[in-house]
Specification:
Elements (H helix, E strand, L loop, with lengths): L5 E6 L7 H14 L3 E5 L4 H5 L11 E4 L25 E2 L9 H7 E3 L2 E2 L2 H11 L3 E6 L1 H12 L5 E4 L15 H22 L2 E6 L6 H10 L2 E3 L7 H14 L5 E6 L11 E2 L9 E2 L2 H13 L3 E6 L10 H19 L5 E6 L2 E6 L12 H4 E2 L4 E2 L24
Helix pairs in contact: 1-10, 6-7, 8-9
């Protein structure tokens, strides 16, 4: 007697609004085409730490159905929880207790660092997963290619507020982040105007400035992005000019967390995460201090990061999450593997899994960013997709 084919689904990295819409829609579509679904809790940790036994490890594996996912799309975050687990570089002190010393010795790749890929492959086989659907950004999806190379059938779904995953013009969480940032900045206009200050807002974007650029687009603010080192004295001139010309006597500057001026450096602090990232010092505070000391104008630094990923998704992220899930299930039904659902040329499509060697997708400076005025380019937008990004070319392998 043949068993029902089975899909595993997980969310890794930072949470964003819209993830639960993907989870629910995968479950609903899977039941229509004859699959059952296991939710893998806490991202890749679920497959590195899952305990052996006659039944499912309830700490990490939960069967999903239409009843327990019926209402999860109405909320933000991820119902399956998440982690920043790097299965290829597990460190001593964060290893599952049930893995014995002999197996650990086989997994050790350098002193105190362990590659748990074989454990993940064993657990996928133990769970009887015919397909895996990982949802994440560059760090989470980098492990997807490792699994695909080892014969695991999977379809990936991109998410990140930075919108910087290679191969797609849109990632889940991006629209909600911009909407939240716009609302927060517009609320702060009143206090900035009341005190006649220059406001400096720190926003997500370690390596790419999409979130800062698009927030500036809808708030008419100056923006600073990691892809272009700005001239600090010129920025001060622009901010003072903006304040002088504004009847309410305030100005706005939006800085991506990875932005920096020419000749400047900003420190990092704290332990590195599983993918080697440390926290960067707050560019908004550093920049606000520099602007005030160089101009004599009063400044105010404001943090716009984790609040942007909180709460329920906006309509765009709900719609994209639902559609990405259904595109993923179409690919599963067709027997495809090693692909990522995507927006290409403004249309729903799919791409090869992101190549970690390419790094994050970056802003096309000549076409999207005014390097003299530190603003988005607003002109000559005809022919661009709805969200104005430079289109990702169609995948030649999809030509019919």
């Amino acid at each position: 007697m043949s068993r029902t084919p089975r899909i595993g689904i997980l969310t890794g990295g930072g949470d964003v609004p819209g993830l639960n819409a993907v989870i629910k829609s995968v479950v609903y579509r899977a039941t229509e085409i004859g699959y059952e679904v296991y939710g893998i809790r806490r991202g890749w940790e679920g497959l590195t730490h899952m305990k052996p036994g006659p039944g499912l490890d309830g700490d990490y594996i939960v069967p999903l159905d239409r009843n327990n996912t019926r209402a999860i799309d109405r909320t933000g975050g991820t119902w399956l929880h998440t982690s920043r687990t790097n299965a290829r570089k597990m460190k001593a002190g964060k290893l599952p207790a049930h893995i014995g010393p002999d197996r650990l010795k086989q997994l050790e790749v350098q002193d105190g660092v362990y590659n748990f890929t074989p454990v993940v492959l064993d657990n996928i086989q133990t769970l009887g997963l015919d397909y895996l659907i990982p949802i994440g950004g560059d760090d989470t999806l980098s492990f997807s290619q490792v699994l695909a190379d080892n014969g695991v059938k999977l379809i990936a779904v991109p998410k990140t507020m930075d919108n910087d995953v290679q191969g797609t013009e849109y990632c889940i969480g991006f629209s909600t982040a911009i909407s939240r940032a716009k609302d927060a900045i517009n609320r702060q206009r009143t206090t900035l105007g009341s005190h006649e200050r220059i406001g400096v807002f720190r926003i997500f974007g370690r390596d790419a400035g999409f979130t800062a650029l698009y927030t500036a687009y809808v708030t008419s603010a100056r923006c600073l992005i990691p892809e272009y080192r700005f001239d600090l004295d010129h920025l001060v001139e622009l901010a003072v000019e903006d304040k002088k010309d504004n009847p309410s006597k305030y100005a706005l500057v939006i800085a991506a967390e990875g932005a920096m001026w020419k000749g400047g450096e900003i420190g990092e602090f704290g332990p590195a995460d599983a993918f080697g990232h440390k926290h960067k010092a707050n560019i908004a505070e550093v920049l606000a201090s520099e602007i005030q000391s160089r101009s004599g104008e009063e400044t105010l630094a404001s943090e716009l990061t984790y609040d942007l990923r909180s709460g329920d998704p906006d309509a765009v992220d709900s719609m994209v999450g639902i559609t990405f899930a259904n595109v993923a299930m179409n690919l599963v039904a067709e027997g495809m593997s090693g692909r990522m659902v995507a927006i290409r040329g403004g249309k729903y499509s799919h791409s090869p899994l992101p190549d970690p060697d390419l790094g994050p997708r970056a802003i096309d400076i000549p076409k999207m960013y005014n390097t003299d005025r530190y603003r988005p380019i607003y002109t000559n937008r005809e022919g661009l997709p709805l969200l104005l990004g430079i289109p990702v070319p169609e995948d030649p392998s999809l030509a019919r």
